[in-house]
Specification:
This protein has an eight-stranded parallel β-sheet with strand order 1-2-3-4-5-6-7-8. It has one domain (3-315): Metal-dependent hydrolases (TIM Barrel, Alpha-Beta Barrel). Helix 5 (73-89) runs parallel beside helix 7 (111-129). Helix 10 links the parallel strand 5 and strand 6 (217-220). It starts with a helix and ends with a helix. It has helices at 3-9, 25-35, 44-49, 56-66, 73-89, 101-105, 111-129, 145-154, 180-188, 203-213, 228-236, 245-250, 262-267, 279-282, 286-297, 301-313, 319-325, and strands at residues 12-18, 92-99, 132-140, 164-168, 192-197, 217-220, 240-243, 271-274. The chain has 326 residues and is α/β, with parallel strands linked by helices. Bound molecules: hypoxanthine (HPA) and zinc ion (ZN). Hypoxanthine (HPA) is lined by residues 18, 21, 56, 168-169, 196, 199, 247, 277-278. One of its GO terms (molecular function) is adenine deaminase activity. Belongs to the metallo-dependent hydrolases superfamily. Adenosine and AMP deaminases family. Adenine deaminase type 2 subfamily. It catalyses: adenine + H2O + H(+) = hypoxanthine + NH4(+).
């Protein structure tokens, strides 16, 4: 069996995926036309050529601009099912997808338009592919905590359809402590908690995510490795890290895939998983991430199977469903 077939055939969960980051240029153009929205690109090729980033903020600027074509429930449905179709081909059997409501509500798109479209895409994925999924509502950390509280309030009618809250966008200068109160409120409402930390931010931000937010899962976490005490704690507590190799390369978190720490994470006993983050922008879906990491760091099939196993262990599925996937 080829490596590509082995990876695609490995049942896996995707735990770090921004649905807005799965907007392929072709769909961006189609939605721009359908909604009569002007976009600053003449062709799909021009869009792809613009995807050259030297840090997180370069990407975020273009990612928020691209999301402007998303206007209707049908748009969010189409976005979601395009991702689920692609993920199913990569062997994803369960996906926990993030969405950024503030990116849309700030443009006057109602919260319900966004979530109803995503939920209908999720239902279609289950019917079509047998794929289960969960929603993670992410707060934009460059906005203030009051805005996050307002978002949590807007989500109240759909709380039973949302599994977790997350924290994304510009990390540097926006430490987790800024959101301690809204995360406490989300926890009190029965939601799970995840946060991006240690992507560009220092180990201190990971400590804050653990100690001040009380996260159940750590998005990225790469820079934790700079601190041996923190690394040992993450290993001892079986904290799941949602690692995104192609994203790390595109956003210059690593200079070269050959420098990626995924094998070191496994050696240190971390519960690392592989994910695609924003696949339309970073050059690949989840199987591409498995392939790139394996090729660059010499991961063998046992390592890849362990990464897939970790993805179920780190999911928010109930224990019996996790056990059924192992
Ligand atoms: N980091 C922070 N915010 C994000 C990302 C990311 O990789 N993708 C989408 N929003
Ligand atoms: Zn992310």
């Amino acid at each position: 069996m080829t490596e590509t077939d082995f990876i695609a055939g490995l049942p896996k969960a995707e735990l770090h995926l921004h649905i807005e980051g799965s907007l392929e240029p072709e769909l961006m153009f189609a939605l721009a036309k359908r909604n009569d929205v002007a976009i600053p690109f003449a062709s799909v090729e021009e869009v792809r050529a613009a995807y050259s980033f030297s840090r997180l903020q370069d990407f975020l600027d273009i990612y928020y601009a691209g999301a402007d074509v998303l206007r209707t429930t049908q748009d969010f449905h189409d976005l979601a099912i395009a991702y689920f179709d692609r993920a199913a081909a990569d062997g994803v059997v369960h996906a926990e997808i993030m969405f950024d409501p503030q990116t849309h509500t700030a443009r006057g798109i109602p919260f319900g338009t966004v979530i109803e479209g995503l939920l209908s895409g999720m239902a279609e994925a289950e019917a079509k592919h047998g794929m289960t999924s969960k929603l993670i509502m992410s707060f934009l950390r460059h906005l203030d905590e009051d805005d996050a509280f307002a978002t949590l309030e807007a989500a109240k009618p759909w709380l039973d359809r949302i599994d977790a809250v997350g924290l994304d966008s510009s990390e540097l200068g926006h430490p987790p402590e800024k959101f301690a109160r809204v995360f406490a409120e989300a926890r009190a409402l029965g939601l799970r908690l995840v946060a991006h930390a240690g992507e560009e931010g220092p180990p201190e931000y990971v400590y804050q995510a653990l100690d001040l937010l009380g996260i159940d899962r750590l998005d990225h976490g790469n820079r934790s490795l700079e601190d041996p005490v923190l690394t040992a704690r993450l290993a001892r507590t079986s904290m799941t890290l949602t690692v995104c190799p192609l994203s790390n390369l595109k956003l210059c978190v690593v200079d070269d895939m050959a420098d990626h720490p995924i094998d070191r994470m496994l050696r240190e006993g971390l519960r690392a998983t592989l994910n695609s983050d924003d696949p339309a922008y970073f050059g690949g879906y989840i199987a591409d991430n498995y392939r790139a990491a394996a090729a660059a760091r010499g991961l063998d099939r046992d390592d890849l199977a362990l990464l897939a196993r970790n993805s179920f262990l780190g999911s928010f599925l109930p224990d019996d469903a996790v056990a059924a996937h192992l």
